[in-house]
Design brief:
Blueprint (H helix, E strand, L loop, with lengths): L1 H10 L6 H13 L10 H6 L4 H11 L4 H6 L2 H9 L6 E3 L2 H8 L11 E3 L1
Antiparallel strand pairs: 1-2
Helix pairs in contact: 2-6
Length: about 120
């Protein structure tokens, strides 16, 4: 999650705040969680400023119910995070970048997503 947020912040013309992207992903994860997402989720995420705080929040609030965890792979969370970014975006995994780079070289500094 941190890498995606860093790529967006470093490369997008009008990036959303790190907290906004994180909140988009967390809302998605906690939609069906038991217990449900706290009512003050947005306010709590807004107070996060350091990598350590984001990591601690994620660890504390990640649902531990097996059915919920199984439903959410990294891609779905990443796509929800990217929905907060202005303009069209798409997540491209490192594996896909490597496989495509066999045919067309990609600059190593290119972000792992496309934004118009």
């Amino acid at each position: 999650m941190k890498t995606i947020m860093d790529v967006v912040l470093d490369n997008h013309v009008e990036p959303p705040a790190r907290q906004q992207m994180f909140l988009g992903g967390m809302r998605h994860v906690l939609q069906k969680a038991q217990p449900p997402a706290p009512a003050d989720l947005s306010a709590r995420v807004s107070g996060l400023t350091t990598d350590e705080q984001f990591a601690a929040f994620l660890k504390k609030n990640w649902p531990d119910h097996p059915k919920v965890v199984r439903r959410f792979d990294g891609r779905s969370i990443h796509s929800r995070m990217l929905r907060t970014v202005p303009g069209p975006t798409r997540f491209v995994s490192a594996r896909n970048i490597r496989s495509k780079s066999k045919f067309a070289p990609i600059a190593t500094s290119a972000p792992a997503f496309k934004s118009a």
